[in-house]
Amino acid sequence: MTAPERLSKRNVIRQENERLILSAAEKVFAEAGFGGATMQLIADMAGLPKANLHYYFATKEELYRKVVQNIFEIWLHAADVFDNAPGPVEGIGAYIDAKMEISRRHPEGSKVWASEVMHGAPVIQDYLETTLRDWTTGRSQVIQKWIDEGKMDRIDPEHLLYMLWATTQHYADFGHQIETLNGGRRLSEKQWKAAKDSVKQIILRGIGATDGLQGR
Amino acid sequence: MTAPERLSKRNVIRQENERLILSAAEKVFAEAGFGGATMQLIADMAGLPKANLHYYFATKEELYRKVVQNIFEIWLHAADVFDNAPGPVEGIGAYIDAKMEISRRHPEGSKVWASEVMHGAPVIQDYLETTLRDWTTGRSQVIQKWIDEGKMDRIDPEHLLYMLWATTQHYADFGHQIETLNGGRRLSEKQWKAAKDSVKQIILRGIGATDGLQGR
DNA sequence: GTCTATATTTCGATAGAC
DNA sequence: GTCTATCGAAATATAGAC
Asked: Which of A197, B17, B47, B122 has its CA 20 to 30 A from that of B159?
């Protein structure tokens, strides 16, 4: 985006502190929501005085906006696997794997995004109308192509995408509920694999694209 | 639950005002989250002075708790269709229909629940550990029975339930995103039907339980 | 049961010394 | 760039007249 900046000592300090603050903010926003989060809590978690947050991010909203943008960028890159795939088994399968892995590694970001959208997307509405809209149109065309080539059933591409988002993000957004139902324990390595396999099996078979996956 | 109260004038007024406040609170909590909601906003939406809210509900948290309990009860009743069904096509199909209809009619409640769980269920953790846990165990056994009877594929019942919750609630919780991608328009009658059919088709076929649904 | 006025707390943001 | 002290706004909750 911006031109690479000189690695002056001041810039290094700025970069490190911004990363520290953003990481703490993501956690606090995820746990308390935008309204419930306080600059004091974020400062405490980052180990900085509250005033320093306002030095790096003028307002609470500006800080929040950066956090939301972060998870969105991560998701966008996860869709790269989609494009050059020869068919739905590879493309959608890999997309599910990638999204599930993000739910596992970045549950906070997913929650912040969910909260933002649930409240009417007050700060990232423009992203929904531009970037996400274009992204969705593009992927729908890929899916439609697979349908036309007979590689999967005739399914509404948009509703399929919603199902992919819903099921994968559920493991992040509702992670606490899942953990509680799992006896209060986080999902083990084996359970995460079972989750991924269940999602892939049901959806891939559900859209009639199980060539080579039978019996797994 | 409680014994039926005498229909004194005072009780009638109380009942009506509580309903009015709860309805306004559900909307405000859904739009702003617990932290972002204010008693003033809820009072304005209910058309009452702020002090009256505190007369009926001592604290903001008590009011919020009632709202969360409401949607939970609605969902519990939606699962009645599950139990006496002869197999997954009828049982899960009817459950999807019921949950989708709730997402359409009560999107606010769904959002409040999602927000509550995302933030670690601070006020309804006990429900997760008791009622929801028992409910999940019971339905998992029903699903397992269907598997043993050869009426559907061998799928992990819990992950299947998660997928049902995720996909149906997504249409409420992410309704704003879906509307935006739909050109800023709410889903039409026809689009809601298409959504239901897509979900049912993919999941029922995905679990190998499509007897009599082929080609629909 | 209703409603105005207000007590009390907390939060976002800033001033200003270092 | 850091940090203490503090301002001003806004929120929850209550007091007390009606």
From this structure: B122
